[in-house]
Structures are given as C-alpha cells and as structure tokens.
Design a protein that fits this description.
single chain; 183 residues; mainly alpha; N-utilizing Substance Protein B Homolog, Chain A; 2 domains
Length: 183
C-alpha cells in the first residue's frame, strides 16, 4: 500500500509523538502502537493540512477516514527509527560535531532521527523530500530556530554521507557509542 502525501504527513506526526513518548518515558505505551492509537494522537493534527488535503484520520477521533495509510506509515517509520536508532544517532552526532549532543532539544533530535531514517530507509521518499518534511515537523513541533537547525544538519548528512562511507570503507558511523544525552 502506497501512502499519499497527507497519510505520510499524518504518519510522520504520529511517529514523532510515539517516539517522543518513548524517549521521554520508555513505558509511555506498554502495549505499543495499539495502546498509542487509543490515545487518539492525531486528534489535533488536522490544522497541519494544506487547503484541499484530507486528513487520514477524522479529527473527531473516529479512527481512519480511509485505509489507515497514516497508521501504517507511522508504524513503519517509527519501527525503522527504533531498529536503526544507534546508527541514526551516530550519524547525527557526527553531523553536529561542533555541538554537544545534549544541547540539541529532545524534539529536534527525534525529528532528525525521523528525517534521516526516511533518507536512509525509505527508498520511495527522495532525500530532499525527507529533509523538507523534517523541517515542517520542526516548524510545527520545535523551537523557533529548529527548522533551520534540522535543515542544516540533515542537508550536511545528505551531502557528506557518501564521503563518510568512502572514508570508512562503507561504514559512515563514528566509533564512539555515546548517546545523544536524551535516553
């Protein structure tokens, strides 16, 4: 099933909310996504749609308005982020080498994970689209300058990744396993 633009947008927002909850409190949803969906995470997200777009979920909490593409995309994206979290964090740390990782806000870090994951793991999402969508998430959920920061970090990774992989024989990850300080 291919998700349309509004399904993916809603899915990204839901993935951000889910991942933030897990990052903030590892026991946020002990039942995983089924329990998360019961909280109606997309109830207030309808305002993020542009004119003429439909939301994948009824803002009144009635569940999927169409085939559940937003849910599917959120679960696929969040699952990929969780599966590849260490590698994503290592690449982000490498890109923000002039910053202490704990200076990056929790929301911004999760948005960077989402954008980078889409760039690396979702072949149907062009890298520039992944960056633009991460910037949109940062505008909606991050601090005032978050969108510029997210754009800069993800674009740096997009440009540098081939060279990083070449330098390290195909593995672009640094050898330091330290966390971003938000665990």
């Amino acid at each position: 099933m291919t998700a349309n633009r509004s399904d993916r947008m809603a899915g990204r927002e839901a993935a951000l909310l889910y991942l933030f909850g897990l990052d903030f409190d590892g026991d946020a949803w002990p039942g995983g996504f089924p329990e998360f969906w019961k909280s109606d995470p997309l109830k207030t997200a309808g305002e993020s749609l542009e004119e003429g777009e439909e939301f994948a979920f009824s803002p009144s909490g009635g569940g999927p308005a169409r085939g559940g593409g937003a849910r599917d995309y959120a679960e696929r994206l969040a699952g990929a982020v969780l599966q590849d979290r260490e590698a994503l964090d290592a690449l982000i740390r490498r890109a923000v080498d002039k910053w202490a990782p704990d200076r990056v806000g929790r929301v911004e870090w999760i948005i960077l994970r989402i954008g980078l994951c889409e760039m690396r793991s979702m072949p149907d999402v062009p890298p520039q689209v992944a960056i633009n969508e991460a910037v949109n998430l940062a505008k909606r959920f991050g601090a005032a300058e978050s969108s510029r920061f997210v754009n800069g970090v993800l674009d740096r990774i997009r440009i540098a990744l081939p060279e990083w992989e070449k330098e390290s024989g195909g593995d672009a990850l640094p050898e330091t396993p330290e966390s971003p300080g938000h665990d």
